[in-house]
Amino acid sequence: MSEGSKGQVWTGWIISGLVILFLLMDAVMKFVKPAPVVEACAKLSLPLELITPIGAVLLVCTLLYAVPRTALLGAVLLTGYLGGAVSIHLRAGSPLWSEALFPVYLGVLMWLGLELRDARLRGLVA
């Protein structure tokens, strides 16, 4: 199993860090509920009372992804979460390439970051 170069591992942590920061910000916004979040909920036909539980799920999954020991579990759970986001956007008729597939782009970055920073995962994939 290859440990990977320092540059590869650092690149993985940078990519993962950006994904983690974005998801943490998204989770916090679901608790704070500023006007753009409330408007997005209305556009996506999501009841406002579901936003806090959705934010809690996102927060837990993101924290699991951020901790190296539980990162793989977090990535699997976040993949399901992001798949649900794609489904909601498609059902609401969001623009495909910019909004509906954004969770897919984020998921690709999430897995790329994990693959670059985790030698165990590289061993499974190789």
How would you describe this structure to a colleague?
The structure is a single chain. The chain contains seven helices and no strands. The model has no long low-confidence stretch (mean pLDDT 94). It is an all-alpha fold and 126 residues long. It is elongated. The protein has one domain.
How is the biggest beta sheet arranged? none
Taking all residues together, what is the mean pLDDT?
94
The gyration radius over C-alpha positions equals 16 Å
Which H/E pattern describes the elements? HHHHHHH
Structural class: mainly alpha
Tell me the fraction of residues in β-strands, as a range.
under 5%
> What is the CA-CA span between the terminal residues?
9 Å
Name the assembly state: single chain
Shape assignment: elongated
Overall strand count: 0
Contiguous low-pLDDT stretches (5 residues minimum) are none
In helices, the fraction of residues equals over 70%
Query: How many DSSP helices?
Result: 7
How many structural domains? 1
